[in-house]
Each structure stands twice: as C-alpha cells, then as structure tokens.
Amino acid sequence: MGVQDLQDHVLVQCDFEIFGTVQGCGFTKHCRDNCLALGIKGWVKNSKQGTIMGKMQGAKGDVGKMVEWLSKTGSPGSKIDKAEFTNWGTCSRLAFTDFAIRF
C-alpha cells in the first residue's frame, strides 16, 4: 500500500447542494444507490428551493467518486448547473449507519 492508497482510506465528510434540473428525475434515489454501492454513509433530500442537499461520510477515495458523480453525471434526465461541497473535514468514525433519503 502506497501513501496515496492510505490517503484514499482516510474518513472524510462533507455537505453538498446540487443546483439545476435535479428534482423529479430520480436524483435522490440514484444518489442513495451509488452511495450504498460505495459504502458511503449519510443522507440526501430534495430542498424547498428546488435543489438536492445532503451529507456524506466515507473513505476519501469513495467520497471523491461521489463528488465527481454529483458534479458531472447525476441521474438520467437531470441537468446539473452547479454543485457546492462545504464543511469538509476528516472524521475518526462514521456518524451514520447507512445512506438514507430524507423527506
């Protein structure tokens, strides 16, 4: 295992908000499914402002993959105009036991 491999396994967390045509196209479901497949914990929800908001925690490399997905790919039918990632930090343990859709 090299230094990069170790860095990819550091536990990180961040909040996110995704802007664009992101509601009504299964975005929260696809986000949850991708996070579960990567072992990322946290939550996602539709906001009253028409955005998608959430929090994710997991291995740095896996969270990086989700940042890419949330920024550029999204669900089929979505159009991402902007993605904001805030409150970055490391964590010694995960505060969530799964990844859930909140209402």
Automatic annotation (TrEMBL):
<dbReference type="Pfam" id="PF00708">
    <property type="entry name" value="Acylphosphatase"/>
</dbReference>
<dbReference type="InterPro" id="IPR036046">
    <property type="entry name" value="Acylphosphatase-like_dom_sf"/>
</dbReference>
<keyword id="KW-0378">Hydrolase</keyword>
<dbReference type="InterPro" id="IPR020456">
    <property type="entry name" value="Acylphosphatase"/>
</dbReference>
<feature type="domain" description="Acylphosphatase-like">
    <location>
        <begin position="13"/>
        <end position="103"/>
    </location>
</feature>
<dbReference type="InterPro" id="IPR001792">
    <property type="entry name" value="Acylphosphatase-like_dom"/>
</dbReference>
<dbReference type="GO" id="GO:0003998">
    <property type="term" value="F:acylphosphatase activity"/>
</dbReference>
<comment type="similarity">
    <text>Belongs to the acylphosphatase family.</text>
</comment>
<protein>
    <recommendedName>
        <fullName>acylphosphatase</fullName>
        <ecNumber>3.6.1.7</ecNumber>
    </recommendedName>
</protein>
